[in-house]
Amino acid sequence: MIVAKQKDLEVIVGMLQGYERILVLGCGTCTAICLTGGDREVGILASSLRLADKVSGKNRLLKEHTVERQCEWEFLDEINDQVKEVDAILSLGCGVGVQAISERFPDIPVLPGLDTLFMGMPQEESVWVERCSGCGNCILDKTAGICPVTRCTKGLLNGPCGGTNNGKCEVDPEKDCAWTLIYQRLEKQGKLELFDEYHPPRNFQAVVRPGRFTIK
Amino acid sequence: MPQLPNNLISTREMTSENQFEPEIIAFSCHYCAYAAADLAGIMRLQYPTNIKLIKLPCSGTVDILHILNAFEQGADGVFVAGCLRGGCHFVEGNNRAERRIERAKDILDKVGLGKDRLEMFFMSSSEGPRFAEVAREMTDRIRKLGPSPIRGV
Questions:
Q1: For B2, which residue in chain A has the nearest alpha carbon?
Q2: Domain map of chain A by residue range?
Q3: Is residue B101 part of a domain?
Protein backbone atom coordinates (compact mmCIF):
# COMPACT_ATOMS: atom_id res chain seq x y z
CA MET A 1 0.00 0.00 0.00
CA ILE A 2 0.99 3.64 -0.39
CA VAL A 3 1.90 5.38 2.85
CA ALA A 4 1.40 9.12 3.28
CA LYS A 5 1.39 11.61 6.12
CA GLN A 6 -0.82 14.63 6.57
CA LYS A 7 0.67 18.06 5.96
CA ASP A 8 0.76 20.47 8.89
CA LEU A 9 -2.53 22.23 9.49
CA GLU A 10 -0.85 25.62 9.00
CA VAL A 11 0.37 24.55 5.56
CA ILE A 12 -3.10 23.33 4.58
CA VAL A 13 -4.73 26.53 5.86
CA GLY A 14 -2.21 28.55 3.82
CA MET A 15 -2.92 26.48 0.70
CA LEU A 16 -6.66 27.06 1.02
CA GLN A 17 -6.39 30.84 1.26
CA GLY A 18 -8.56 32.54 -1.33
CA TYR A 19 -10.96 29.64 -1.76
CA GLU A 20 -14.47 29.99 -0.36
CA ARG A 21 -16.05 26.62 -1.18
CA ILE A 22 -13.89 23.59 -0.60
CA LEU A 23 -14.44 19.86 -0.95
CA VAL A 24 -12.31 17.80 1.44
CA LEU A 25 -12.02 14.52 -0.45
CA GLY A 26 -10.78 11.35 1.23
CA CYS A 27 -9.57 8.11 -0.30
CA GLY A 28 -10.89 4.84 1.10
CA THR A 29 -7.95 2.68 0.02
CA CYS A 30 -4.26 3.11 0.97
CA THR A 31 -4.39 6.41 2.87
CA ALA A 32 -7.47 5.24 4.80
CA ILE A 33 -5.48 2.22 5.99
CA CYS A 34 -2.50 4.34 7.07
CA LEU A 35 -4.92 6.60 8.97
CA THR A 36 -4.21 9.80 7.10
CA GLY A 37 -6.84 10.09 4.40
CA GLY A 38 -9.94 8.01 5.12
CA ASP A 39 -13.45 9.00 6.13
CA ARG A 40 -12.49 9.71 9.75
CA GLU A 41 -9.47 11.86 8.86
CA VAL A 42 -11.61 13.83 6.40
CA GLY A 43 -14.02 14.53 9.28
CA ILE A 44 -11.23 15.59 11.64
CA LEU A 45 -9.53 17.83 9.07
CA ALA A 46 -12.79 19.46 7.92
CA SER A 47 -13.79 20.02 11.56
CA SER A 48 -10.36 21.55 12.35
CA LEU A 49 -10.62 23.86 9.33
CA ARG A 50 -14.15 24.90 10.36
CA LEU A 51 -12.89 25.70 13.87
CA ALA A 52 -9.94 27.70 12.46
CA ASP A 53 -12.38 29.57 10.19
CA LYS A 54 -14.76 30.37 13.05
CA VAL A 55 -11.92 31.60 15.28
CA SER A 56 -10.74 33.93 12.51
CA GLY A 57 -14.28 35.05 11.67
CA LYS A 58 -14.54 33.35 8.28
CA ASN A 59 -17.53 31.36 7.08
CA ARG A 60 -16.47 29.09 4.25
CA LEU A 61 -18.29 26.09 2.83
CA LEU A 62 -16.40 22.89 3.68
CA LYS A 63 -17.91 19.79 2.17
CA GLU A 64 -16.73 16.30 3.10
CA HIS A 65 -16.69 13.18 1.00
CA THR A 66 -14.66 9.98 0.71
CA VAL A 67 -14.45 7.91 -2.46
CA GLU A 68 -13.40 4.28 -2.58
CA ARG A 69 -10.30 5.07 -4.68
CA GLN A 70 -9.13 8.44 -5.94
CA CYS A 71 -6.75 6.99 -8.53
CA GLU A 72 -9.47 5.56 -10.80
CA TRP A 73 -11.86 7.82 -12.70
CA GLU A 74 -14.73 5.35 -12.30
CA PHE A 75 -14.78 6.06 -8.57
CA LEU A 76 -14.75 9.83 -9.14
CA ASP A 77 -18.08 9.89 -10.99
CA GLU A 78 -19.96 10.09 -7.68
CA ILE A 79 -18.51 13.54 -6.94
CA ASN A 80 -19.52 15.08 -10.31
CA ASP A 81 -22.31 17.14 -8.71
CA GLN A 82 -20.32 18.19 -5.65
CA VAL A 83 -17.43 19.41 -7.77
CA LYS A 84 -19.76 21.89 -9.50
CA GLU A 85 -20.50 23.53 -6.14
CA VAL A 86 -16.91 24.11 -5.00
CA ASP A 87 -13.94 26.19 -6.15
CA ALA A 88 -11.20 23.87 -4.84
CA ILE A 89 -10.72 20.23 -3.90
CA LEU A 90 -8.45 19.29 -1.01
CA SER A 91 -7.40 15.71 -1.62
CA LEU A 92 -6.44 13.35 1.18
CA GLY A 93 -5.18 10.75 -1.26
CA CYS A 94 -1.63 10.04 -2.42
CA GLY A 95 0.04 12.01 -5.21
CA VAL A 96 -1.54 9.65 -7.75
CA GLY A 97 -4.99 10.48 -6.37
CA VAL A 98 -4.40 14.23 -6.59
CA GLN A 99 -3.28 13.92 -10.22
CA ALA A 100 -6.13 11.57 -11.17
CA ILE A 101 -8.71 14.03 -9.79
CA SER A 102 -6.95 16.94 -11.47
CA GLU A 103 -7.00 15.11 -14.81
CA ARG A 104 -10.67 14.22 -14.37
CA PHE A 105 -11.72 17.75 -13.34
CA PRO A 106 -9.13 20.02 -15.01
CA ASP A 107 -11.11 23.23 -14.36
CA ILE A 108 -10.88 22.96 -10.57
CA PRO A 109 -7.65 23.34 -8.54
CA VAL A 110 -6.84 20.12 -6.67
CA LEU A 111 -4.63 20.63 -3.61
CA PRO A 112 -2.62 17.93 -1.81
CA GLY A 113 -3.45 17.53 1.88
CA LEU A 114 -0.87 14.77 2.29
CA ASP A 115 2.81 14.19 1.63
CA THR A 116 3.18 10.80 -0.07
CA LEU A 117 6.06 8.86 1.47
CA PHE A 118 6.55 5.34 0.13
CA MET A 119 5.13 1.89 -0.66
CA GLY A 120 5.12 -0.16 2.49
CA MET A 121 3.30 -2.16 5.13
CA PRO A 122 2.22 -1.72 8.74
CA GLN A 123 4.83 -3.09 11.16
CA GLU A 124 3.09 -2.42 14.46
CA GLU A 125 0.38 -0.05 15.71
CA SER A 126 0.95 3.40 14.16
CA VAL A 127 4.18 2.37 12.41
CA TRP A 128 4.58 1.78 8.68
CA VAL A 129 7.77 0.70 6.95
CA GLU A 130 8.97 0.91 3.35
CA ARG A 131 9.28 -2.38 1.48
CA CYS A 132 9.35 -1.69 -2.27
CA SER A 133 10.90 0.99 -4.47
CA GLY A 134 9.15 -0.04 -7.69
CA CYS A 135 12.52 -0.41 -9.46
CA GLY A 136 11.07 -2.63 -12.19
CA ASN A 137 13.64 -5.37 -11.76
CA CYS A 138 12.67 -7.66 -8.88
CA ILE A 139 15.39 -9.88 -7.41
CA LEU A 140 13.49 -11.01 -4.30
CA ASP A 141 13.87 -14.66 -5.43
CA LYS A 142 17.62 -14.35 -4.82
CA THR A 143 17.45 -12.40 -1.56
CA ALA A 144 15.08 -14.49 0.57
CA GLY A 145 12.19 -12.06 0.10
CA ILE A 146 14.07 -9.07 1.51
CA CYS A 147 14.60 -6.20 -0.90
CA PRO A 148 18.15 -4.79 -0.69
CA VAL A 149 17.32 -1.99 -3.15
CA THR A 150 14.80 -0.61 -0.63
CA ARG A 151 15.94 -1.85 2.76
CA CYS A 152 19.71 -1.43 2.43
CA THR A 153 20.34 2.27 3.05
CA LYS A 154 22.91 2.22 0.25
CA GLY A 155 20.74 0.10 -2.05
CA LEU A 156 23.60 -2.40 -2.57
CA LEU A 157 22.98 -5.44 -4.76
CA ASN A 158 26.06 -7.24 -3.39
CA GLY A 159 26.22 -6.83 0.35
CA PRO A 160 26.79 -6.46 3.14
CA CYS A 161 29.21 -3.57 3.02
CA GLY A 162 31.94 -2.94 5.59
CA GLY A 163 29.58 -0.78 7.61
CA THR A 164 27.38 -3.58 8.90
CA ASN A 165 27.59 -3.59 12.68
CA ASN A 166 26.03 -6.46 14.65
CA GLY A 167 23.06 -6.52 12.29
CA LYS A 168 22.63 -2.75 12.25
CA CYS A 169 23.50 -0.17 9.60
CA GLU A 170 26.42 2.26 9.93
CA VAL A 171 24.32 5.05 8.41
CA ASP A 172 21.60 4.73 11.04
CA PRO A 173 22.17 2.37 14.00
CA GLU A 174 18.36 2.20 14.45
CA LYS A 175 18.00 0.47 11.10
CA ASP A 176 18.59 -3.21 10.47
CA CYS A 177 21.28 -4.17 7.96
CA ALA A 178 19.24 -5.63 5.08
CA TRP A 179 22.11 -7.88 3.98
CA THR A 180 22.47 -9.38 7.47
CA LEU A 181 18.74 -10.12 7.41
CA ILE A 182 19.12 -11.70 3.96
CA TYR A 183 22.01 -13.89 5.17
CA GLN A 184 20.10 -15.03 8.25
CA ARG A 185 16.96 -15.90 6.31
CA LEU A 186 18.86 -17.71 3.52
CA GLU A 187 20.64 -19.71 6.24
CA LYS A 188 17.29 -20.61 7.81
CA GLN A 189 15.96 -21.69 4.39
CA GLY A 190 19.13 -23.73 3.67
CA LYS A 191 19.87 -21.69 0.56
CA LEU A 192 23.11 -19.97 1.49
CA GLU A 193 24.55 -20.75 -1.97
CA LEU A 194 22.39 -17.89 -3.28
CA PHE A 195 24.48 -15.51 -1.16
CA ASP A 196 27.56 -16.29 -3.29
CA GLU A 197 25.81 -15.25 -6.47
CA TYR A 198 27.11 -12.01 -8.00
CA HIS A 199 24.52 -9.45 -9.03
CA PRO A 200 25.59 -7.21 -11.93
CA PRO A 201 24.88 -3.49 -11.63
CA ARG A 202 21.17 -2.69 -11.52
CA ASN A 203 19.38 -1.80 -14.74
CA PHE A 204 18.19 1.72 -14.05
CA GLN A 205 16.38 1.72 -17.40
CA ALA A 206 13.96 -1.05 -16.30
CA VAL A 207 11.38 1.66 -15.67
CA VAL A 208 11.85 4.79 -17.75
CA ARG A 209 10.17 7.77 -16.08
CA PRO A 210 7.32 8.43 -16.41
CA GLY A 211 6.46 4.74 -16.23
CA ARG A 212 3.89 3.23 -18.52
CA PHE A 213 2.66 -0.35 -18.67
CA THR A 214 0.48 -2.02 -21.27
CA ILE A 215 -0.77 -5.60 -21.06
CA LYS A 216 -0.28 -7.39 -24.38
CA MET B 1 -19.00 6.06 14.30
CA PRO B 2 -21.69 7.26 16.75
CA GLN B 3 -22.36 10.98 16.38
CA LEU B 4 -22.85 13.53 19.13
CA PRO B 5 -26.34 15.04 19.40
CA ASN B 6 -26.41 18.44 17.69
CA ASN B 7 -28.12 20.21 20.57
CA LEU B 8 -25.28 19.75 23.03
CA ILE B 9 -24.91 23.40 24.01
CA SER B 10 -27.78 25.49 25.27
CA THR B 11 -28.25 29.24 24.92
CA ARG B 12 -25.75 31.15 27.01
CA GLU B 13 -27.09 32.34 30.34
CA MET B 14 -25.41 35.21 32.14
CA THR B 15 -25.22 35.44 35.89
CA SER B 16 -26.56 38.46 37.72
CA GLU B 17 -23.03 39.95 37.85
CA ASN B 18 -22.92 39.65 34.05
CA GLN B 19 -20.25 36.99 34.38
CA PHE B 20 -20.21 34.28 31.76
CA GLU B 21 -21.00 30.71 32.73
CA PRO B 22 -18.79 28.20 30.96
CA GLU B 23 -20.30 25.11 29.39
CA ILE B 24 -18.09 22.09 29.75
CA ILE B 25 -18.65 18.69 28.18
CA ALA B 26 -17.36 15.75 30.21
CA PHE B 27 -16.89 12.48 28.35
CA SER B 28 -16.98 10.01 31.20
CA CYS B 29 -16.19 6.32 31.31
CA HIS B 30 -19.04 4.13 32.55
CA TYR B 31 -16.73 2.14 34.84
CA CYS B 32 -15.04 5.01 36.68
CA ALA B 33 -15.75 8.70 36.16
CA TYR B 34 -19.47 8.29 35.56
CA ALA B 35 -19.75 6.16 38.70
CA ALA B 36 -17.57 8.69 40.56
CA ALA B 37 -19.95 11.48 39.48
CA ASP B 38 -22.82 9.33 40.73
CA LEU B 39 -21.03 8.84 44.03
CA ALA B 40 -20.36 12.59 44.30
CA GLY B 41 -24.14 13.04 44.05
CA ILE B 42 -24.88 10.36 46.63
CA MET B 43 -22.33 11.98 48.97
CA ARG B 44 -24.14 15.29 48.49
CA LEU B 45 -20.91 16.93 47.30
CA GLN B 46 -21.27 20.35 45.73
CA TYR B 47 -19.68 20.96 42.34
CA PRO B 48 -20.39 23.53 39.61
CA THR B 49 -23.38 22.88 37.39
CA ASN B 50 -21.40 23.85 34.29
CA ILE B 51 -20.51 20.23 33.55
CA LYS B 52 -22.55 18.23 31.05
CA LEU B 53 -21.86 14.52 31.34
CA ILE B 54 -21.77 12.18 28.37
CA LYS B 55 -21.48 8.55 29.37
CA LEU B 56 -19.16 6.36 27.34
CA PRO B 57 -18.70 2.58 27.62
CA CYS B 58 -14.93 3.30 27.96
CA SER B 59 -12.85 6.49 27.68
CA GLY B 60 -11.13 4.73 24.75
CA THR B 61 -14.29 5.11 22.68
CA VAL B 62 -13.95 8.88 22.57
CA ASP B 63 -12.84 10.10 19.17
CA ILE B 64 -11.07 13.32 18.19
CA LEU B 65 -14.12 14.02 16.02
CA HIS B 66 -16.40 13.99 19.10
CA ILE B 67 -14.15 16.49 20.87
CA LEU B 68 -13.87 18.80 17.86
CA ASN B 69 -17.60 18.53 17.30
CA ALA B 70 -18.29 19.63 20.89
CA PHE B 71 -16.08 22.70 20.33
CA GLU B 72 -17.73 23.37 16.97
CA GLN B 73 -21.10 23.42 18.72
CA GLY B 74 -19.73 26.05 21.08
CA ALA B 75 -18.47 24.21 24.16
CA ASP B 76 -16.11 26.38 26.22
CA GLY B 77 -14.22 23.37 27.54
CA VAL B 78 -14.12 19.59 27.24
CA PHE B 79 -12.65 16.95 29.47
CA VAL B 80 -12.37 13.22 29.18
CA ALA B 81 -12.31 11.18 32.37
CA GLY B 82 -11.14 7.58 32.31
CA CYS B 83 -9.99 4.91 34.73
CA LEU B 84 -6.74 5.09 36.66
CA ARG B 85 -3.65 3.99 34.72
CA GLY B 86 -3.55 0.22 34.59
CA GLY B 87 -7.15 0.01 35.75
CA CYS B 88 -9.02 0.18 32.44
CA HIS B 89 -11.87 -2.35 32.20
CA PHE B 90 -10.83 -2.87 28.57
CA VAL B 91 -7.08 -2.93 29.41
CA GLU B 92 -5.83 -0.21 27.05
CA GLY B 93 -8.79 2.18 26.55
CA ASN B 94 -7.63 4.99 28.83
CA ASN B 95 -4.12 4.97 27.32
CA ARG B 96 -5.62 5.21 23.83
CA ALA B 97 -7.85 8.07 24.96
CA GLU B 98 -4.82 9.88 26.38
CA ARG B 99 -2.98 9.65 23.06
CA ARG B 100 -6.03 10.97 21.21
CA ILE B 101 -6.35 13.85 23.66
CA GLU B 102 -2.73 14.78 22.99
CA ARG B 103 -3.44 14.96 19.27
CA ALA B 104 -6.70 16.86 19.81
CA LYS B 105 -4.85 19.38 22.02
CA ASP B 106 -2.35 19.91 19.22
CA ILE B 107 -5.20 20.55 16.77
CA LEU B 108 -6.89 22.99 19.19
CA ASP B 109 -3.63 24.90 19.54
CA LYS B 110 -3.22 25.13 15.78
CA VAL B 111 -6.78 26.31 15.10
CA GLY B 112 -6.42 29.05 17.71
CA LEU B 113 -8.67 27.72 20.50
CA GLY B 114 -5.79 26.75 22.78
CA LYS B 115 -5.00 23.36 24.23
CA ASP B 116 -5.96 24.31 27.77
CA ARG B 117 -9.66 24.05 26.95
CA LEU B 118 -9.24 20.26 26.78
CA GLU B 119 -7.95 17.92 29.48
CA MET B 120 -7.79 14.24 30.36
CA PHE B 121 -8.31 13.04 33.93
CA PHE B 122 -7.91 9.63 35.51
CA MET B 123 -9.96 8.46 38.49
CA SER B 124 -11.57 5.40 40.01
CA SER B 125 -15.27 4.83 40.64
CA SER B 126 -14.78 5.30 44.37
CA GLU B 127 -13.39 8.83 43.94
CA GLY B 128 -16.56 10.93 44.19
CA PRO B 129 -14.69 13.82 45.85
CA ARG B 130 -12.06 13.68 43.07
CA PHE B 131 -14.77 14.07 40.41
CA ALA B 132 -16.15 17.11 42.23
CA GLU B 133 -12.61 18.52 42.47
CA VAL B 134 -12.03 17.97 38.73
CA ALA B 135 -15.33 19.68 37.94
CA ARG B 136 -14.32 22.69 40.04
CA GLU B 137 -10.80 22.77 38.60
CA MET B 138 -12.03 22.67 35.00
CA THR B 139 -14.74 25.28 35.60
CA ASP B 140 -12.22 27.64 37.23
CA ARG B 141 -9.76 27.12 34.40
CA ILE B 142 -12.32 27.82 31.66
CA ARG B 143 -13.70 30.81 33.54
CA LYS B 144 -10.19 32.27 33.53
CA LEU B 145 -9.71 31.48 29.82
CA GLY B 146 -12.98 33.20 28.97
CA PRO B 147 -15.73 32.17 26.57
CA SER B 148 -14.92 30.10 23.50
CA PRO B 149 -14.18 32.39 20.52
CA ILE B 150 -16.44 30.12 18.47
CA ARG B 151 -19.56 31.24 20.31
CA GLY B 152 -18.52 34.35 22.19
CA VAL B 153 -20.42 35.57 25.21
A1: A40
A2: 2-118, 133-196
A3: yes
* d(C-alpha A7, C-alpha A146), whole Å: 31
Tally of structural domains, chain B: 1
Residue B65 resides in a domain? yes
Report yes or no on whether pTM surpasses 0.95.
no
**Closest Cα in chain A, distance from residue B40 (Å):** 34
Residue of A nearest to B71 (CA): A51
Q: Among partner residues A8, A40, A51, which is closest to B111 by beta-carbon distance?
A: A51
User: Which pLDDT tens digit goes with each residue over A113-145?
Assistant: 999 999 999 999 889 999 999 999 999 999 999
In this structure, the dihedral spanned by the alpha carbons of residues A40, A42, A46 and A49, taken in order and rounded to 10 degrees, is: 100
Per-position DSSP letters for chain A, written without gaps between them: -EEEEEPPHHHHHHHTTT-SEEEEEEESSHHHHTTSSSHHHHHHHHHHHHHHHHHTT---EEEEEEES-TTSHHHHGGGHHHHHT-SEEEEES-HHHHHHHHHHSTTS-EEE-EEEEEEEEEEETTEEEEEE---S---TTTTTT--HHHHSTT--SS---TT-BTTB-SS-TTSBPHHHHHHHHHHHHT-GGGGGPPPPPP-TTSSPSSP-----
Q: Residue B58 falls within a domain, yes or no?
A: yes
Give me the CATH code for the A2-118 domain, please.
Answer: 3.40.50.2300
User: B72, B96, B110: which to substitute to probe chain A, counting the most A Cβ within 10 Å?
Assistant: B110
Whether ipTM tops 0.85, in short, is: yes
Range of the domain at B38: 30-145
